[in-house]
Design goal:
The protein contains five helices and nine strands, in the order H-E-E-H-E-E-E-E-H-E-H-E-E-H. The radius of gyration is 18 Å and the shape is elongated. Strand 4 and strand 5 form a beta hairpin. The chain has helices at residues 4-9, 42-45, 96-104, 114-122, 152-166; strands at 14-18, 27-40, 62-65, 73-78, 81-86, 91-93, 109-113, 127-128, 135-144. The strands form two sheets. Strands 1, 2, 3, 6, 7, 8 and 9 form a seven-stranded mixed β-sheet that branches. It has 168 residues and is an alpha+beta fold.
Length: 168
């Protein structure tokens, strides 16, 4: 959903989007930054080459998100500044939950928002990697059509959403 007509034709009043936005004609309101975490299942690291710097990812199976900036390169800020490294893997998906399941099954290294992986990390099912490096945060937006379809119910939900994220 990237154009106002798509939003309306698909029957959505508003949508949430994480990451970079294209110029869509929709009204976009910034809600929050999403911290991004590099992680993997401990089992997938047992026989893998050492992972000391982002450039070492070239020797690892990575789980790739099909859209946006994490499709074939990953960027990190670290002790020597910002670095962007090419990544590859046999599995790509456009759904973070699918990539999370693959990571939990030991299929590779995952770079996803912390909200998606935090529970698995707390449970020890995934471990954080390259903690001296951080990926740039992704931005969470709410998008809606710029026309007269703003019903009182939609306005109330939008106001609630904006306030809820302002409090964090």
């Amino acid at each position: 959903i990237n154009r106002p007509v798509d939003l309306v034709e698909e029957g959505y009043d508003l949508v949430f989007r994480v990451g970079e936005l294209r110029d869509s004609g929709l009204i976009a309101r910034r809600l929050a930054n999403q911290r991004v975490v590099l992680c993997a299942a401990p089992s997938s690291l047992q026989t893998a080459p050492p992972l000391r710097t982002p450039s070492d990812l070239a020797h690892h199976e990575c789980l790739l998100f099909l859209r946006g900036r994490y499709r074939d390169t990953w960027t990190f800020d670290g002790p020597d500044g910002r670095t962007t490294v090419p990544v590859s893997g046999r599995l790509s998906a456009d759904h973070g939950g699918s990539l999370l399941q693959a990571a939990l099954a030991g299929q590779g290294i995952l770079l996803q928002p912390s909200v998606l992986v935090a529970g698995a990390i707390e449970q020890g099912r995934l471990v954080s990697l390259l903690e001296a490096y951080s990926a740039p945060a992704l931005v969470l937006h709410v998008l809606y059509a710029p026309d007269h379809r703003m019903t009182p119910k939609l306005r109330s939900f939008l106001d609630f959403t904006l306030q809820a994220f302002a409090d964090h």
